[in-house]
Design brief:
alpha/beta, about 250 residues, about 50% helix, Rossmann fold
Amino acid sequence: MYQIAHKSRLLRQILLLTFSIVFIYPAAISAQAKESIAVVDLEGRGISALEAATLTDRMRSELVKTGAVTVVERGQMQQILSEQDFQMTGCTSDECAVEIGQMLGVTKMVAGSIGKIGATFTVDLRTIDVGTGAIINTMTRDYRGEIDGLLRQIEHISWELVGLVHPDELLEQLRAEPARPLEEVVTPEPRRPEPEPAVQPAKKSGRGLFWLVVLAAAGGGGYYAYTQGLFDTGPEPISSPPDFPDVPTP
């Protein structure tokens, strides 16, 4: 009975270990591999603070969709900063962004502004390394149209910040490519070796020339013999009868 219980306990431990290796451990490794990012509220220049905050929230949500980074949500940021008695409002400098990043325990901060000049909106973003305080990436985008069109622009920019292409943009690129017809691959039939001729052309022509010379020589020799009368023997002359003695008449 003790052996059965011991084997059952050992089996459960093996199953638990297997489950941890297959499911929990890879998820933990993946989470550790992702960089942690926080986004400071974008500064509005020519647009209201509410519109700038709305566009910032869209950027955070889109960064989460990429799955490439771990993003600190706005509510979490406010809670952590309030515990440190720190006001995030008006924090637009790189030094302030680095200070917030240190409090949040992230590796990178995203800061920037959205301005409007005439009928053109401009988005200026920068990625700051919290450890060194250096700007490691900058991005600008100009947009002409209604302000709600900035939502779409922010979505694409968020994917570019992590080195990815927005799915819709990738789909548009694929649609823009010309259709490539499928080429049928035809395997050529193996060629059978052609049988060699019984008489090679060069040898045949040489042999014909040899017989032509022989016939010409024979014809010339015959013509010469004919002209010399070698072939004209004529009929042999008949010899005259022999002389018989005269016989007296009785």
